[in-house]
Design goal:
With 370 residues, this protein is mainly α. It contains 13 helices and four strands. The chain has helices at 22-48, 52-64, 67-92, 100-117, 123-152, 156-178, 213-231, 233-243, 245-250, 255-282, 293-303, 311-331, 336-358; strands spanning 5-6, 11-15, 359-363, 368-369. It has a two-stranded antiparallel sheet with strand order 1-4. A two-stranded antiparallel ribbon has the order 2-3. The N and C termini lie close together (10 Å).
């Protein structure tokens, strides 16, 4: 009988049967990060002729070079972390909430409204009302796509994305309504004289914005979400639905109820990020209050595999990269596109490393005959 030669594919990929040990997974990510720096160095030399080490040093200085820069980086990282933590339960359940931008904006609108109309309240009461209002506004903005998904099985990606545009127009309406001074098309700094509704400073003074209470608030939420996702019945249901909706139904889990409950929670936490952005940072509201962070936070949540504690690391990394990119664009007179390219290369390598964490790549070793 004639033997036939059968050639294996040159490259064969398969999903890992077991998860890699944590130290190996993080080793792959660290290697990917350093490889990204090498590629960034090549790009920097090719485009500008600058010393890559000097550019990286400037990036680090732009994020942490002074006490003020460090506090601003921490503040912005906490806002990013809050949004990512909010997205985690929905994404874990494979409910693709792309509406964080809108949820942040409506939370910011609710916060700003309280600052403008309720500023006569005692400080503690006003802050509590602002927090609750932002949570409710964000939760309601998530409630609508959750209900439509549960009842009519609508596409949550498109629904939540369209809700972003509605929130932007709603923000434009309130900016026009509250503009100060009249005709400026800007709300301006709200309560700049008495600072009613501003989160008070805790760790520092003399800088614009809060650098303490927002950190504590977000860390509390992060710990809560970690416990909620890993120790509670609802967290277990989210994991089961994410693995298989049919299995969840067979196990007696009320999937539709879980959808609605989870997206309300997700939207509420993103709405709280709007409170942090308005009360603890800018002290104003505009269509740029979210600033694209609702989309960037998706990368944070995905890189952290929806683990809220690990999200702390990636939130700081991404915000530091953004601050560093702004610094090199300013200091070396580079275009914003070049600095964003460097950030994009690093994120591309980090996202790509997840493939090697979850899949095995094998090369052809020998010829097989039959």
């Amino acid at each position: 009988m004639e033997k036939k030669s059968v050639h294996e594919p040159l490259i064969r990929m398969s999903k890992r049967g077991e998860m890699l040990p944590a130290w190996k997974a993080w080793g792959i990510r660290v290697i990917a990060f350093f490889l990204s720096l090498v590629v960034c160095g090549i790009v920097i030399v090719a485009i500008s002729g600058l010393n890559p080490v000097q550019v990286f040093s400037t990036m680090a200085s732009g994020a942490f070079g002074t006490a003020k820069r460090s506090w601003v980086t921490i503040r912005d990282a906490m806002t990013m972390l809050c949004i990512a933590v909010g997205l985690a339960p929905a994404f874990k359940m494979k409910f693709w909430n792309i509406g964080a931008e809108g949820q942040i904006l409506v939370g910011g609108i609710a916060c700003a409204a309280c600052m403008i109309y309720l500023k006569s309240l005692p400080t503690i009461v006003l802050l509590l009302v602002m927090i609750i209002a932002s949570l409710v506004a964000g939760g309601l903005w998530g409630f609508l796509p959750g209900v439509f998904k549960a009842i009519w099985n609508t596409n949550e990606t498109l629904f939540t994305l369209m809700m972003n545009y509605i929130a932007i127009q709603l923000t434009s309406f309130f900016v026009a309504k509250w503009e100060n001074p009249f005709g400026s098309n800007s709300v301006g700094v709200i309560n700049s004289a008495g600072k009613e509704g501003w989160l008070p400073n805790l760790f520092s003074s003399g800088y614009n914005g809060d650098f303490g209470w927002n950190v504590i608030l977000v860390l509390i939420i992060t710990v809560f979400m970690y416990l909620y996702m890993t120790k509670s019945k609802h967290g277990y249901e989210i994991a089961v639905i994410g693995d298989s909706e049919n299995t969840a139904r067979y196990a007696g889990i009320r999937v539709n109820k879980a959808y609605v409950r989870t997206i309300i929670l997700s939207g509420a936490i993103c709405g709280l990020a709007g409170f942090i952005a308005v009360s603890g940072a800018s002290h104003t509201i505009s269509t740029s209050t979210a600033g694209g962070r609702g989309f960037t936070a998706i990368i944070v949540a995905w890189l952290a595999q929806f683990n809220s504690v690990v999200m702390v690391i990636f939130s700081f990394l991404i915000v530091a990269l953004q601050k560093g990119a702004q610094a090199i664009a300013s200091q070396y007179n580079l275009s914003q596109e070049v600095s964003e390219m460097i950030t994009g290369i690093i994120l591309f390598f980090l996202l790509g490393s997840e493939f090697f964490v979850n899949y095995i790549v094998r090369f052809r070793r020998k010829k097989v005959t039959k």
